[in-house]
Amino acid sequence: MKLKIEFGGGLELLFLNQRTHLIVIPSTVPQGDKNGQPGQPVDINFLVHWLKDNLLKERPELFIENGTVRPGILVLVNDTDWELEGEGGYQLKEDDEIVFISTLHGG
Amino acid sequence: MAPKSCALCQNAKAILRRPKTGQQICKDCFFRVFETEVHNTITEAQLFKPGDRVAIGASGGKDSTVLAYVMKTLNERYQYGLSLFLLSIDEGITGYRDNSLETVKRNQQQYDMPLKILSYDELYGWTMDRVVSTIGKKNNCTFCGVFRRQALDRGAASLCVDHIVTGHNADDIAETVLMNIMRGDIARLGRCTAICTQGEDTIRRSKPFKYAYEKEIVMYAYFKKLDYFSTECIYSPDAYRGHARAFLKDLEAARPSAIIDIIHSGEAFEVKDEVRATQKTQQTCKRCGYMSSNDLCKACSLLEGLERGMSTAAISDKGRRKLEAEGPAPNNLRTIPYFRPPTTVTIEVPAASQ
Start and end of every Cytoplasmic tRNA 2-thiolation protein 1 C-terminal domain (chain B) (predicted)? Predict the structure, then answer.
């Protein structure tokens, strides 16, 4: 499944200093993958682990904490606050745009 | 999940859950309530009067960028009658502040506001790069904080403004409340929730975003596509604040009202007169004329330490005594130009013309 991922608020620094990434991930959790029930459709929690394993270059503790994004990181699903979409349990669809923005940098 | 409609207009698709209220609202209602709440904060605290010259402390980061945009918007919408300026302090941190100042320069164009940049190098003769290469990464935030506070006042004085507004948001204030409790700094605890502070001869400073959640500021910047800079300072961050911040974010995740609740707790503390009395009385610095609680202001003290090669000595009272024991300051010592607060022109309006 194709997804568009965007990082902002300084998070892009952990991901090759690149804001936008077009990625392809499995549409169901692969056999033997510990980040979900194998065979189930993938959700944002799966994506967060996938990003950590495949795209994140440094300091994973600034992105992921207790199995989900670190508190203080805002997540938008197709430009809507993920809190309205079921947060980590949101089931991803083809061509979804997921934005991660850190709020933790000075202003 | 079916898209939810906005709790306010019942019409458009909700795009955000407000941390303060839990309401799910659409983009247009979000812009409106965010701006209106800042307007209410400003009017209830009577922060400005028509004709005021107001400097926005601008770092290029999210808070001050949103503040500049919202101040411009409200000033036009509600006819505050303010002259707005951008005021930036260049600490001299290569790879950090130089980049963020580029953002402020773009903001100057985008918002059509005059910009004043004052550098530590110009004012103190030291950049933070040079301070850190001299003293290392321990205590450098002390230097930077003391220098910035005074630089903002001096920059504001040179613009002849009546007022400085800063982008401190609700999360910042809640963090400061927690830090003051954890440090037992009760005198500061009593002051840190004030929306507006003013000493006798200092320029008023206030925080129009006192009740604005960081989440909403970042969402506002995102949906308005505002141009801001976000990188951590390359020198060691304030570790203590970092812990308070992480703790607060954990609390917020469990209960979003935690931030506003902590501010209310801070406001409700009543500081006993005995505690308040331990604060030293304010005077002016004998060397540079800036407000001070000792003969020398903190910036002059720190600068003298740097100039005399005893940089860390000036951080504590004990260190200061050691420095004084070394003899008086040499005559050719680099000092800060004498501070003259802006001459406030009070125009008495004759009764007849009112």
Answer: 283-312
